[in-house]
Write a structure and sequence with these properties.
The complex is a heterodimer of chains A (111) and B (218). Chain A has helices at 27-36, 90-109; strands at 4-5, 8-17, 21-22, 25-26, 52-60, 78-87. In chain A, a hairpin with a 2-residue loop joins β3 (21-22) and β4. In chain A, the strands form two sheets. Chain A has a four-stranded antiparallel β-sheet, with helices on one face. The model of chain A has no long low-confidence stretch (mean pLDDT 94). Chain A has 111 residues and is an alpha+beta fold. Chain A has one domain. Chain B is an alpha+beta fold. Chain B is built from eight helices and six strands, in the order ββααββαααββααα. In chain B, strands 1, 2, 3, 4 and 5 form a five-stranded antiparallel β-sheet that branches. The chains are: A alpha+beta (111), B alpha+beta (218). At the A-B interface, β2, α1, β5 and β6 of A face β2, α1, β3, β4 and β6 of B.
């Protein structure tokens, strides 16, 4: 199943967020808050990551229930979803991402 | 929190699929990705030229990442299809385009997804997308003011400019002028001034219009 289309690579990551809370705020909402406070456009930390075309973060809170008679699924963890459409190979990209925005990623993953 | 970055809109969909349909859907995508079927399946959308990138990701019931023993293991009834799209224009234009351009392809791409209505009529399909859409928290676009068509135009301009630089040592002035004028003619649709369209947010457009009127009055 191809992650590659032409020169572009489609990266999809699901990062489980620890259950629990800090100071009355769930870890997922703390993560959400960090994401919402990230500077945007050319000031976004992702602007420092070479070879990024388009990238996004969102929080997957739970599975979708499509109503009876379908069954109800409940995710036991929430997930930080990161997708990126990037140029080139994935190893170079991720190495560059770490070298460029290690602190920003550390903050996001520290929750 | 925004689904919009410049001219691009980020759509995230998650839709359940019965566990035994996971591999059937994977086969459908594999076949659909073959060059012959890709043109048949996506030809309509390619013509519309709305999309920067789109992808479908299928996560089976047991494929959710579990990074430590402390993390509870997922126990799900369904597999899940995740759809991510980066497109130009409004949400309505995009979803309606799918329905109008590739209705049968749409049904195939979300084959037997739980609760999915047919792609036509559009209203139930629009409601399905709204129900299953997840808002983006942070969206980055490295070329925010370029639409998909702007990028394609830039590629064509680049190719022509490279072609114009060939044989400069040997070509005569007259022949170069002919070549240059020919290139201009071919690129006339590609080298116009970039506009803020397609309008991504009608609300944003309304605000901009009001601002222009207020400035004109003052």
């Amino acid at each position: 199943m191809p992650n590659i289309s032409g020169k572009a690579y489609g990266l999809t990551t699901l990062c489980p967020i620890k259950n629990g809370q800090q100071g009355g705020i769930s870890n997922s909402n703390l993560t959400r808050k960090i994401l919402q406070q990230l500077p945007e456009n050319q000031h976004s930390p992702l602007a420092k990551v070479a070879n990024t075309y388009l990238a996004r973060f969102f929080i997957l809170d739970d599975a979708v229930f499509e109503s009876y008679p379908n069954k109800l699924d409940t995710l036991k963890s929430k997930y930080l979803v990161f997708t990126s459409n990037l140029h080139g190979d994935i190893d170079t990209y991720l190495t560059g991402m770490w070298n460029s925005i290690e602190n920003d990623m550390g903050q996001l993953c520290s929750v | 929190m925004s689904n919009i970055a410049g001219k691009a809109y980020a759509m995230n969909l998650i839709t359940p699929i019965k566990w035994y349909m996971v591999w059937i859907n994977r086969i459908i995508f594999w076949v659909g990705g073959l060059p012959y079927f890709q043109k048949k399946s996506f030809g309509g959308l390619i013509t519309l030229s709305l999309i920067h990138y789109a992808r479908w990701v299928i996560v089976g019931r047991s494929q959710w990442p579990r990074l430590s023993e402390e993390q509870p293991k997922e126990e799900l009834n369904y597999g899940y299809m995740l759809f991510f799209s980066n497109f130009n224009g409004s949400w309505t234009q995009y979803v309606d385009s799918f329905s109008m351009a590739i209705p049968s392809g749409l049904n195939l791409l979300w084959y037997k997804n739980i609760g999915k209505p047919g792609s036509v009529p559009e209203t139930p399909f629009n409601a399905y997308v709204i129900k299953n859409q997840i808002w983006t928290e942070h969206y980055y676009n490295s070329y925010p003011m370029a639409s998909s068509n702007d990028v394609k135009s830039a590629q064509r301009v680049k190719q022509q400019v490279i072609s114009l630089t060939e044989n400069l040592d040997t070509i005569s002035e007259a022949d170069f002028m002919k070549k240059y004028n020919s290139a201009l003619f071919e690129l006339q649709a590609d080298i116009s001034q970039m506009e803020p369209t397609p309008v991504v947010s009608l609300a944003y457009e309304a605000i901009e219009k009001r601002t222009r009127i207020e400035k004109a009055i003052s």
